[in-house]
Structure formats: C-alpha cells, structure tokens
Amino acid sequence: MTFQTMITQLGQGFGTTLSIFFLTLLGSLPLGLLVTFGRRSKFAPLRGFIKFYISIMRGTPLMLQLIVVFYGPNLIFGLSVPSNWRFIAAIVAFVINYAAYFAEIYRGGIESIPVGQYEAAEVLGYSKSQTFLKIILPQMVKRVLPSVTNEVITLVKDTSLVYVIGVVEMFTRAKQIAVAPDSPGIVTLFVAGVFYYVFNFIVAWVMERIEKRLNYYQ
Amino acid sequence: MKVLEIKNIKKSFNDQTLHVLKDISLSVDEGEVVAIIGPSGSGKSTLLRCATLLTEMDSGDLIYAGNYAAKNDENGQSVYAGKEELKKIRSLFGLVFQNFNLFPHYSVMKNLTDAQICVLGRSKEEAESRARSLLEKMGLADKGSAYPCELSGGQQQRVAIARALAMDPQILFFDEPTSALDPELTGEILKVIRQLADENMTMVIVTHEMAFARDVADRVIFMDGGVIVEQGDPKEVISNPKEERTRQFLARFAAK
Amino acid sequence: MKKMKKFLSLALALVMMVSLLAACGSKDSGKQKLIVGFDAEFPPYGFLAADGSYDGFDLAMAEEVCKRLDWEFEAVAIDWNSKDTELKSGNINCIWNGFTYNGRENDYTWSDPYVDNSIVIVVKADSGIKTLADLAGKTVMAQAASSAVDAINGNEAFKATLKEVVELPDYNNGFMELKQGTVDAVAADIGVAAYQMANNSGDYVMLDEAISSEQYAVGFLLGNTELRDAVNGELKKMAADGTMMKIAENYVDAGLVLDNLCMCN
After folding, report:
1. CA A33 to CA C43: how far, in whole Å?
2. Using an 8 Å Cβ cutoff, are C69 and C234 in contact?
C-alpha cells in the first residue's frame, strides 16, 4: 500500500468523521436550546424529566450510550431496525449526548443575563418570545461561545468512539490500514493525528473569528 | 384627567409575613410631576414596580387613563386584566431604571427604534426619525451608531430616557435615575428631567435628590414603613414637614 | 417570531431527514442476505485492501458461498468485543473471521471446522525465551475477548506463572508493545503470528510449544440451523472441488498457512 493510497483511505474515513461531526452539531445545537427550555420549564414533571435526562447523559460514558442506542431498540424492545441503523444510531447517540451538554451551557448563559434586561423588555412591551429571541438569545450566544468551542473540539475527538458500534470513521480506518498487508504501519496513526489536529485547528480558528465578530460590545 | 390611579395597594413578601406596601392610594394628574422620597426599605421602589406591572400586588386597583390593569375581586384580591389589555396598558407608561438596562448588543439607534418597530408597528423610517429627534434633544445626536458600553453613565441614562420617550408614553416613571451615577454626572440627567417637566410631561420620580424634588416636583410624597406619611407642596413637605418621621428622615439626609 | 418559525422548521426538517434516512434504509431486495460480522484488523482472515474494500480469506469464501446460493453478501467490520450483541440483535447473521470453535461449542450453532489453528506464543528473537516455562513472571499480550485469552485462561497452571495478561483491542497494538518492550510475549492465532513474523523478518520467533490447539469454524446464532446448513453445505462442496484451496492461495502472502486447511485434507 502506497502512502498515496493510505491518504486516500484515511480521507474516506475522515469523510465519515466529518459527517458525524456536522450532523451532530446540526442536531444538538438547536436541540440543546429546546432542552434548556424544558430544564427551565414551570411544569415540574417536564423539568424533572429533563433534569434526569441530563444527569444520565453527563453521568454515563458516551460509549455506553452508543451501545444502548444501537442495540437497545432490538434487544430491549424487539423492534427491527433499518440496515443503516448503525450510522443513524451513532448520530442519535451523539446528538442527545451533546444536546445535554449544550443545554447546560446555554442555561448558564441565560441565567447569567441580568434580570434588568427582561424587565426593560417587558416595560417596553416586548412579548415573551420577542424578549427571548431579540434580547436574551443574542447576549447568551456571546457569553456561551468559549464553552461551546470547548465542546465542539471535544466532539471532533469523540467521533472515534463510534467504532464500538462498528461505524468505521477515520481512527478505526487508520487502525485497519496499519495492519493491512504492505501498509505503512504505525505511521498511519500519526497521519490520522495530523488530520485531527489540522481539523481542530480550523475549528478553533473559525470559532475565534465568530467570537471576534461578537466583540463589538462588552 | 387622571393619568394614573392607584387604590388601596397592598403587597407583602415571604408568605404574607413582610408587609411592604400597606394600603397605598395615589393618583397622578396629566402634566403633574410627583416626587417620591423616603428611606430605603420604605416601599417606594415596590410601589413603582407594582405600578409598572413588574411586580404583582396582592390587593388593590391599578388604573391607567380609565383602563383597569388590575381590579379587586369580592375577596379583596387583585385580578389582572387579560394579556391584550395589559399590552395596551403597557404602551401608556414608560420606566427609566436606576441601572439604565440598555440592550448592550444593540447600537444606541437600535435601542431606540427596535421596540417602536416590533411593539408599536412603526416603519423603520418613522422610528428612526423619532429616535433622531430624541437623541438631538438629549444632546446625543452624534451617538446613534455607538454601543452602550462606549458611553458614560450619564450618556447611557439619557439614552434610556430617550428609549422610554420614543414609545410616546402618557406617563414616565423614574426609579432613582441618578443613584448609579457619579455625582458629577447627576446634573445632566436632572437637567433633562427638568426640561421634560417644562414640556408638561407627566412623571413619577423616586429620588434621593431633595433639592431637585423641591424645585421640579408639583407634589412630594414621603413614604416610610409601607405607608404614605406625608404629601403635598414640595416646599412645605421638604422645608417645613408636619410629621415627626419626615423631619427625622430629612435631618438624617441633611447630615450626610 | 419569524426567527422562531425558522428555527422550528429547521428542527422539523432535521427530524424528517433522520426518519427518511431510516426509511430508505429498510428497503428489501427480496434476496436472502448473508451479513458477515468480522474484525477488519485480523489478517489474513479479514483486513482492509489497498483499494479501500474489505478483503481476507474468510470474506472471499463467504462471498463465494453467496455467489453460489444467489444470496446478497454484506461484510460488516464490527468491534470484536461486541460480536455477540451484534449477532443477537440481528445486525449480522454470522461471525466468520478466524473464529475459534473450541471452548465455544455450546454458545453458537457452528459450521464444520475449516482451519486448524493453534494459539502460539511469539517473543522477541533476542529475548532468550525458549519454552512456556521461561515465561514465568513475564507479561503476555492477547487480543481482548479472543480465543487466545480463552486459551490462557483454560491453562490455569500456565497462567499462574505469568506476571500479567494484557488484553488489547487488536494485535497490531500487541506487536507494537512487544517491539518497545512493554510486553514480553504475544499469544496469538498461528496465522496472525505467521503474518507478523513475515512482516518483521528476524525480529520475532515463535515458541515450539503451543498453548492450545484449536479449529476455526463459522458461528451462527444458536438455533439457526437453517442458515448453518445452507452455508455449511456449500463450504463442503468448495473444499471438495478445490475452490477453497484456490481461494486460500491468494492469501498466502498475507500469512495464511495452506497446511492448516483441515476441510481440504
């Protein structure tokens, strides 16, 4: 196997890594907001349920959650699952896990906004949803951005956990390449590391740009 | 005509153990400037919060220009009007906070125009022209594109006053508008309020500035322990109080 | 308000997309399907080929069986630790990957054995270790949940002499550790050992004594005799008509030892 082939194959695995990464963000960033609403709901049973959900998501390993989501429907409920359930289960597990973390970050951001902002909006006649979307949400985004960046970078590295349910992403692919006949061997793992590093470098750069753009006020 | 009528407001906190407002009644005529003074904990801020619907009172009537925001039921408990009615009533008054509470992510211009557009339904052009004339009046004509964090405290408070005025309220409340400011900046705010008084703006001002209250207000109310102890002509109340508690308070104040 | 709507429709679209993905996955060609679970880090039986596809002696045989029966063939690279759950949940319907039959007789429904395999010990050529007894006080690596672990556990007396058995996810890690000296020996299937020694000529030697002798077979879900009989029948025919040997010859370079093909003898 030539170096060229190795890069091509790692690239394919990286495609899966990127799919997991972007689909997880696409799902968990908005879902986290809904979870925050539930966590802050006046309806106690919903609030309790969400609290329980968050504690499970944060209190158990993501690897275990992947296994439960993937095998659970069949082994626990006897449902038949579609043949591409493997990948979907990975996305579902990542989305509900990261949504819980994002929800707690959002909640911290929302609760750090002075009550005077709500009162000013209320006196001016803003409705509840206008107050949230126009006044609270934009300020919350700025406050939570550094913590969100941390989670996003952790996500890039967490994607490798999907090997446990047989989804082949870049790191699993690298391990396969490393033992394939005539492979470049252990070098493959270092090259995979370079892929991760470069990608995270780009992620950090993008997040920094966004932070700078939001720095127009203190 | 009475812009605001408050009848027999009662409010307590901590499960009815802490009585902050004990049966307060008050009405404000059109064009009248009322100053409320009193020691901290006297209930004057709570009265203002009840009047501006930020705090729900336990009992009493609240009426703006003849419209009931809250009315006592047969058990003597306040029942608030519906959502739509309250929205209409909110458009009748404005409130200037001690801490300004400007929206930090909006420019000065957007602070002034956003509520006009999305609450009153004004066009962007109309809202901006209203905002520009108010900024000019506040001496901030060149600050439209600035953000609140770039302004001094006095400038921020003037923007907050302009934001409230942009909604064309019939009555404007001030909650200790100079308390968060350095002493040398209070003058510019008091000047603006004085100017509004000259234009016959109806105002209720909670303040610690005794000289200002005496000069600008048509009526001064002294509150202590959740009741109105004394009210009347500012010169009478401040220079020649009838009640012992008022005298003590003013003496303490003068000593500071 | 507009933004709220936008946000809700985005969330809705996402839910629909996921359910659509789920729906289009469930289409059925009507053909019977053999879904083989294997470990892609286990040459010569299953590994990644240069063109990015999965290759290996076992996969090639499985594909041939499907061709003969006009079945659909699918190979799924699973995490070896999860093989039982994969099988029970129906995500795969057989385990075919240098899968040791001895010691697991009652856990699966088995085909006939087709490869003789022994669990052997590989050490560094310059280590001075010559016999199993020399391993006293040493650290031995074996793949987690593999038959090598079972073989060590099955030999209590031998295990008691060892300092530690290190279980790692795959043999590549094991041989890296052997090279850097963090383990003293690797216990592996003879095919795997031969492959690693061929790729690192002269660095390693295999001990003459094996820990255990065993055989590979195809494992099906316990009770699934119908599928087993169909596959087993074709396997026997392939052994008889020389196809199995012909396929095996393609994997000699990858470490397959032709003498071990017991079904052909």
Report:
1. 47
2. yes
- Is the CB of B101 less than 8 angstroms away from the CB of A217? no
**Helix ranges restricted to H, A40-79:** 44-59, 62-75
**Is residue C67 a contact partner of residue C34, using CB atoms and an 8 Å limit?**
no
Strands of B38-196, DSSP E: 59-64, 67-72, 78-80, 93-96, 171-175
- B187, amino acid identity: G
Alpha-carbon span C198 to C204, nearest angstrom = 9
Residue B143's alpha-carbon distances to A195, A199, A218, B13, B136, in angstroms, are 48, 42, 17, 42, 10
Rounded to the nearest 10 degrees, how much is the dihedral formed by the CA atoms of A17, A19, A20, A22? 120
Decide: C117 and C190 in contact? Cβ < 8 Å. Answer: yes
Q: What is the pLDDT along chain C (265 residues), one digit of tens a residue?
A: 444 455 445 544 544 454 444 444 444 567 899 999 999 988 889 999 888 889 999 999 999 999 999 999 999 999 988 899 999 988 999 999 989 888 899 999 999 999 988 899 999 999 999 999 999 999 999 998 888 888 898 888 999 999 989 888 888 888 888 988 889 999 998 888 888 888 887 889 999 888 888 899 999 999 999 999 999 999 999 999 999 999 999 998 887 888 888 888 7
Longest dimension (CA), chain B: 55
Which is it for strands C139-143 and C72-77: parallel, antiparallel or unpaired?
unpaired
Residues 6+ apart with CB under 8 A from A87: A19, A167
Give yes or no for a contact between A106 and A144, defined as CB atoms under 8 angstroms apart. yes
Whether domain C32-114+217-264 has CATH 3.40.50.2300: no
CA quadruple A44, A46, A49, A53: dihedral sign: negative
Nearest to A9 by CA among A194, A198, A173, A203: A173
Neighbours of chain B (3+ CB pairs under 8 A): A
pLDDT digits (tens, 9 = 90+) for B202-222: 999 999 888 889 989 999 999
Angle between helices A85-111 and A44-59 (to 10 degrees): 120
Interface of C with A in 176-215 (CB under 8 A): 176
Asked if the ipTM is above 0.85, the reply is yes
CATH class of A3-217: mainly alpha
DSSP assignment of C190-249 equals: HHHHHHHHHHTTTTEEE-SS-SEEEEE--EE-TT-HHHHHHHHHHHHHHHHTTHHHHHHH
DSSP string, C2-45: HHHHHHHHHHHHHHHHHHHHHHHHT---SS-EEEEEE-TTBTTT
- Look up the pTM and report it: 0.80
Q: Is B40 helix (H, G, I), strand (E, B) or coil?
A: coil
Taking an 8 Å cut-off on Cβ atoms, the answer to whether B167 and A124 are in contact is yes
Residue ranges covered by each domain of chain C: 32-114+217-264, 117-214
CB contact under 8 A, C85 and A180: no
Q: May I ask the CATH class of domain C117-214?
A: alpha beta
The nearest CA of chain A is from the CA of B95 a distance in Å of 7
Between CA B28 and CA B33, with CA B32 as vertex, the angle to 5 degrees is 100
CA gap C129, C122 in Å, rounded: 10
Query: In degrees, to the nearest 5, what angle opens at C-alpha B87 toward C-alphas B81 and B91?
Result: 125
Q: Measured between beta carbons, which residues in chain A are less than 8 angstroms from residue B53?
A: 122-123
Q: What one-character-per-residue DSSP string does B13-32 give?
A: ETTTTEEEEEEEEEEEETT-
A99/A88 Cα distance (integer angstroms): 16
Q: Which residues pair with B172 in a beta bridge?
A: B94, B203
